């Protein structure tokens, strides 16, 4: 019989505190049993009222599924009975469910319909230290609910392996905390040697704050080399496995491919012990993720190559050695430029301790850190930055508004989001019509908040319902909302060696787009859906639509070879299929389709799709500079839209499309883009031709900017029918608040199509651009002559 988990010794204390108080913090080290036992204690000791459930929120779907399966096994029931889980596209809850594991996003969506969470007697917020944006919002909603007195019977447990107890306790009105020790063995820590010191220009020695790009570029190779040295020199046994932490799917695929190649070479030379290499990251299918838990034979060693998913969300038994690269992929929203940036950054000291602790689960272990002790002490932060401090916020802002939060700037969160990012999000929501001039959700906003896509895509789907092209726009939205569907050609073979498209080993590049364009529409026309042709030269999004149509027509027996031939990630296509079906169903159930007028039958499908996309992304409209170049100017800037606090403008005056979009750019006058990406400059991803008449009214709305503080609820709106100076509003859409930033008050009477030559900033930028192009061409001519 297995030894009792450490949390068992604290069962009576935990139950007694929950009977006396509404909130309890449980800090349990990895392996203490908090994830699987707390909910069972609450149910078995009568803390769950009849007809209600215990909710256990997890930031990751794999953790929710794995924990539900484990608890169901312990209680001798099937998943879907007393114990169930709810993740995106998979809900096993039944009438008999009493313990429900679910992702934080699922719980947040449920709070839209039931703000008082009436279905639950206890909510356990597990892995609280990860501070996902959904988890932080849920903390704020739970605090507000408990303080309101509307649910005196509700209990909340905040559980984590590592968190700032004082901060969380203060947030929940000085609640109690219980500390549960883990069942860990000692772990020896080994650091890499520090890099050579380089003198500054004044002769003083310096060491980098972190070990920078040089170390960052080596760690995959170093991890593979170290792993093979350990494998060749250590015995193989039931607790002799290796866990390698890398930053992303592509790195994992490359490392897995290298390890398998080296292990195969060893086997050819007669090595006695085999190596089983398994990737682990969030993009893998559930069954592929579950393989890391499978036991190994006596003659093989398991090597799991993982992202930070394996830090605390999952416990993999048998790990003796951990190899930690010390970095993680972090996504940041650059509010000034209006783009998402994905960077590789050092992990926190708390995360490093968690990674090391994975080696001491079943016996004394070792952790090999591929960074120096000096860099760890000086350059690694103590705790990770919460997602809400670095993410785009339109979806969060709309969700909170629809849940009745009037003043978003005053809404209590553990860490307030950046003020500018929040006000920018509110301005974006107002521009697409999701909020009215007072910051109250409109009928459109109340409907699109239930769609699992960003609000701009939600607005596009609403317009698609009106134009009769929901299926097509839902397809595009699904393919743009997930991971890139195209494999990066130079690494496709490496990804395939590590599990092909299912390993998630590649990212998109122009080669995949070009191949798809040549394959599907060599002359421009392609089959979009239901046999209707679309011209893919009009929009990159229409090329994605044509690609999906071919995927849907391909027989299941031929789908793997089709994906290899097209250079696409099959997993990404399957995910898009699931999201598409969900979006179509949600649009139908939300009432958007019922409100739609009959679609004009004589309008081509491609044009209707482009009109729908323009309804959501008109703030991303650009106009080409000149006739032969690829530089474009944002029309929101030309139209005089606000660039101040919360404004919709971008600091990038000149933008260019990615190279694979040249066919769409040629002959285009005005375009919209899906998003900006950063290469060596800001570049537009997924561009779409639009007509100037589609932009006139939306850009007028951008010029008539409403004070974002009014939208936030932090400043009262002026009296209806008049602005702050008593002048009647000219827009006809209600009173407009006067903005305090002088830049907000710039208004241009000319249409966007007449502005460029009248705007000094754009004229100067265009002159600089043309001068630079001329110098570059002159340099090329001279080099060719030489």
TrEMBL record:
Q: Which residues belong to any copy of the Helicase C-terminal domain? A: 222-404
How would you classify this enzyme at the top EC level?
hydrolase
E.C. number, please? Answer: 3.6.4.13
InterPro entries named in the record = DEAD/DEAH_box_helicase_dom, DNA/RNA_helicase_DEAH_CS, Helicase-assoc_dom, Helicase_ATP-bd, Helicase_C-like, P-loop_NTPase
Q: Which UniProt keywords apply?
A: ATP-binding, Helicase, Hydrolase, Nucleotide-binding
List compositional bias (Low complexity) regions by residue number. Answer: 717-728
The family classification in the record reads: Belongs to the DEAD box helicase family. DEAH subfamily.
**Protein name, UniProt field:** RNA helicase
Please provide an example of a Pfam family that matches this protein in its UniProt record. Answer: HA2_C
Q: Report whether Ribosomal protein shows up as a keyword of the record.
A: no
Q: Where is the composition biased (Basic and acidic residues)?
A: 738-748
| An MF annotation (GO) of this entry | RNA binding
Kindly state which reaction or reactions the protein catalyses: ATP + H2O = ADP + phosphate + H(+)
The domain of life is: Eukaryota
According to the record, the residues making up region (Disordered) are 717-759
Q: Where in this chain does the entry annotate a coiled-coil region?
A: none
Q: Which residues form the Helicase ATP-binding domain?
A: 15-181
């Amino acid at each position: 019989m297995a030894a009792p988990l450490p949390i068992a010794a604290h069962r009576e204390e935990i139950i007694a505190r929950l009977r006396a108080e509404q909130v309890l913090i449980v800090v349990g080290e990895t392996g203490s049993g908090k994830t699987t036992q707390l909910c069972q204690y609450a149910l078995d000791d009568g803390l769950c009222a009849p007809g209600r459930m215990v909710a256990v929120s997890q930031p990751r779907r794999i953790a929710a599924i794995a924990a539900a399966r484990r608890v169901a096994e312990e209680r001798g029931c099937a998943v879907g009975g007393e114990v169930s889980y709810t993740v995106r596209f998979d809900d096993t809850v039944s009438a008999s469910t009493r313990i429900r594991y679910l992702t934080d996003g699922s719980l947040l969506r449920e709070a839209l319909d039931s703000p008082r969470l009436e279905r639950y007697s206890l909510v356990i917020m597990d892995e609280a230290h990860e501070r996902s944006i959904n988890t932080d919002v849920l903390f704020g909603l739970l605090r507000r609910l408990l303080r309101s007195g509307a649910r005196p019977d509700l209990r909340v447990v905040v559980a984590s392996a590592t968190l700032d107890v004082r901060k969380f306790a203060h947030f929940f009105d000085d609640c109690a905390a219980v500390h549960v020790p883990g069942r860990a063995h000692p772990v020896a820590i080994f650091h890499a040697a520090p890099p050579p010191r380089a003198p500054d220009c004044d002769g003083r020695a310096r060491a980098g704050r972190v070990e920078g790009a040089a170390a960052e570029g080596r760690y995959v190779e170093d991890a593979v080399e170290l792993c093979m040295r350990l494998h060749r020199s250590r015995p193989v046994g039931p607790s002799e496995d290796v866990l390698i932490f890398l930053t992303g799917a592509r790195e994992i695929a490359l490392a897995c491919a290298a390890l398998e190649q080296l292990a195969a070479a060893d086997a050819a030379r007669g090595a006695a012990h085999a190596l089983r290499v398994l990737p682990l990251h969030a993009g893998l299918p559930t069954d592929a993720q579950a393989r890391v838990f499978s036991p190994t034979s006596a003659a093989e060693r398991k090597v799991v190559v993982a992202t930070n998913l394996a830090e605390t969300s999952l416990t993999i038994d048998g790990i003796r050695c951990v190899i930690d690269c010390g970095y993680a992929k972090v996504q940041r929203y650059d509010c000034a430029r209006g783009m998402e940036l994905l960077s590789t950054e050092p992990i926190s000291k708390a995360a490093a301790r968690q990674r090391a602790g994975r080696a001491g689960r079943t016996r004394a272990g070792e952790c090999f850190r591929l960074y120096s002790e000096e860099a760890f002490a000086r350059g690694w932060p103590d705790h990770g930055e919460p997602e809400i401090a670095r993410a785009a916020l339109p979806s969060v802002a709309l969700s909170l508004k629809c849940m009745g939060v009037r003043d978003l700037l005053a809404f209590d969160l553990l860490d307030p989001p950046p003020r500018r990012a929040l006000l920018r999000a509110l301005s974006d929501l107002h521009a697409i019509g999701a909020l009215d001039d007072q910051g109250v959700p409109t009928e459109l906003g109340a409907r699109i908040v239930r769609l699992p896509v960003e609000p701009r895509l939600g607005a596009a789907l609403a317009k698609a319902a009106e134009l009769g092209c929901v299926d097509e726009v839902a397809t595009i939205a699904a393919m743009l909302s997930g991971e890139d569907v195209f494999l990066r050609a130079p690494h496709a073979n490496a990804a395939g060696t590590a599990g092909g498209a299912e390993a998630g080993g590649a990212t998109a590049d122009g080669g995949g787009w070009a191949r798809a364009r040549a394959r599907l529409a060599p002359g421009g026309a392609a089959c979009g859906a239901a046999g209707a042709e679309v011209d893919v030269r009009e929009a990159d999004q229409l090329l994605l639509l044509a690609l999906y149509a071919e995927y849907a027509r391909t027989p299941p027996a031929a789908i793997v070879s089709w994906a290899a031939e097209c250079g696409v990630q099959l997993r990404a296509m399957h995910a898009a299929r699931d999201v598409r079906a969900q979006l179509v169903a949600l649009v139908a159930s939300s009432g958007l389709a019922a409100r739609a007028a009959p679609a004009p039958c004589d309008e081509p499908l491609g044009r209707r799709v482009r009109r729908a996309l323009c309804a959501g992304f008109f703030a991303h409209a650009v106009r080409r500079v000149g006739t032969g170049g690829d530089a474009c100017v944002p029309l929101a800037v030309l139209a005089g839209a606000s660039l101040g606090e919360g404004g919709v403008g971008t600091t990038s005056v000149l933008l260019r499309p990615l190279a694979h979009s040249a066919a769409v750019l040629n002959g285009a006058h005005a375009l919209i883009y899906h998003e900006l990406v950063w290469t060596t400059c800001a570049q537009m991803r997924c561009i779409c031709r639009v007509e100037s008449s589609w932009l006139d009214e939306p850009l007028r709305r951008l010029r008539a900017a409403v004070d974002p503080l009014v939208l936030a609820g932090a400043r009262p709106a002026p009296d209806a029918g008049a602005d702050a100076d008593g002048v009647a509003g000219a827009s006809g859409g209600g009173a407009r608040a006067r903005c305090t930033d002088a830049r907000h008050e710039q208004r241009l009477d000319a249409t966007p199509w007449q502005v460029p030559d009248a705007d000094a900033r754009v004229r100067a930028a265009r002159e600089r651009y043309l001068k630079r192009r001329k110098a570059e061409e002159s340099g090329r001519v001279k080099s060719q002559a030489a």
